[in-house]
Here is the input.
Amino acid sequence: MERQKFIRRLLTITAIAISIGLLILFDSILDSYMMRIINLCGIYITLALSLNLIYGFTGLFSLGHAGFMAVGAYTTALLTMSPAQKQMNFFLEPIVPWLANVEWSFFPALMMGGLVAAVTGFLIGAPALKLKDDYLAIATLGFAEIIRIFFTNMQSVTNGPLGLKGLPPYTNMWWTWGIAFISILFMIYLFRGSYGRAFKAIREDEVAAEAMGINLFRHKMLSFTIGSFMAGVGGGLLGNLMGTIDPLMFRFLLAFNILLIVVLGGMGSITGTVISAIVITILMEYLRFLDGPMDLILFKTDGIPGLRMVIFSIMLMVVILFFQKGIMGNREFSWDFLFKPGRLKKNNVEGE
Amino acid sequence: MTFEIFLQHLSNAVSLGSLYALIAIGYTMVYGILRLINFAHGDIFMLGGYFAFYALTTFLMPWWVGFIVAIGLTAMLGMFIEKVAYRPLRDSPKVSVLISAIGVSFLIESLGVVIFGGIQKAFPIPELFGTVVTIGKIYIVSVNFFIPVIAFVFLVGLMYMINKTKTGMAMRALSRDHETARLMAIDVDKVIAYTFGLGSLLAAVGGIMWGMKYPQLYPLMGVMPGLKCFIAAVVGGIGNITGAVLGGLLIGILEIMTVAFLPDLTGYRDAFAFILLIIILLVKPTGLMGENLAEKV
Here is the structure.
């Protein structure tokens, strides 16, 4: 047994070392477009994990993710931009004085973005988490829309519909994948402890969970707030990677992409989320050719904008109609298959 | 603000409210029977407008034939969507069906962008609906007058159908209890399909009239009205048709009047409905006319 444990640990460390090595290799040989996609993969891992925490693990179907991302992205952007940049951006209406001269470095700004998103999540969660299922979904969607509408109208804080341009480019592979790794480790740690188990219990059966002495509201709030924090950090990274943000970016479509990742990966599987975040992000970029002109052997098209989204919607429908469990179901990757061939570790509430 | 201007806004508000009411009925009927937020309803509304547009421009039908064809097509499409996307999931968790509905909604929107093109199209308004009527100092485009009338006619028809016909009775039975309804020899699948057809029919009527009131069609035009009408259904008490009508009127009037009286808030126009939703959900989740349903374990 001791020996097996040692081998497992060794394998894990090797796997992590190999992935870091690969990332460094990619960073040095791939061009900036490819690196952008790899960075996006890292960001989407963080974002999808945050939604999976809320929805996949705790069972709270929230459609408000785009809102938290917007809060994180705007906070990070406003804190990192230099006063000169801000002056250039806010030409319609000057920026409010308390924001005009702040210039933080990236990490504290990112954390602040996460914190503000978490506070927003807390404030939204307090009333909304009394609702369930579809009502919760529509209420969170409503909150996200309200956030977006406010951002569109608060000209002197967010620059309104013009958005913010020329964010200082800090985001690189170390940031995106570093935070993705931290998120993965945090999730693994969380779901080994009592909180994670309580979250899963709530997902499986609220009444039973409550009967076991789990404070429903407190745990739901906790999951929702942590998820919002991660979404805020992810949003901050995403905004910084894009270089420009505007309220239209944070429409429901963005939440849809993340939902697609979570559903495809399997609700309640960290491994599945990571795999499908990478797959979907790469597909999203790779399938861009669909929107452009195509020369199929039989006929030519002059480019059909929107075809890519058709494919993604069909993908979501096929997964939900025929493969409800997604790639991984609620299983996790483990080294078990090396020792007991053909069995992946079951990750149920009653299991382990 | 003079009285005339107030009346002017009021006519606008009532016609918008009636449109919301028509669409909200579709949400409330489907929710009443399946406990499902039909996310695609707003997009069905959009399709109704587009079908009428093509019937009138490409196929050069007389407007009333075109409208009937468009309404019929949309109703059939609504039934088709139910069959393909919702029926296979009838026994799945609620949220799976909701995700499927979100998928359908995005599929219709993106197909709309592909097939109809993302550029806005001008709806060809028949002369009857496009004339400006002057009453004293108030100018009303005739469509603003027709919308409440048509909405009212459809409502009366719907009420008659729900309360007096066998299909209507079956729908009411289904909204209570699927199992028992099945035991009473009600063909559950058929009645659910009818419900979707009826809801989509009303959405198509709404879409066509929307196209005449705001003569611009674009593939995402159904998103905001769709969300607002769902909110209207919740505000009125979901599952309750009278409630949906009240909620629709309330949201339409609230929206127009707030913008009319407080022009500074124009940018926040779309937020009112959401704020109202959240207040209602927190204060009286069953809505204005809803019944108190005990939570089943």
Observations:
- The radius of gyration of chain B is 19 Å.
- DSSP finds twelve helices and four strands in chain B.
- The longest strand of chain B covers residues 132-135.
- Residues 3-34 of chain B form the longest helix (32 residues).
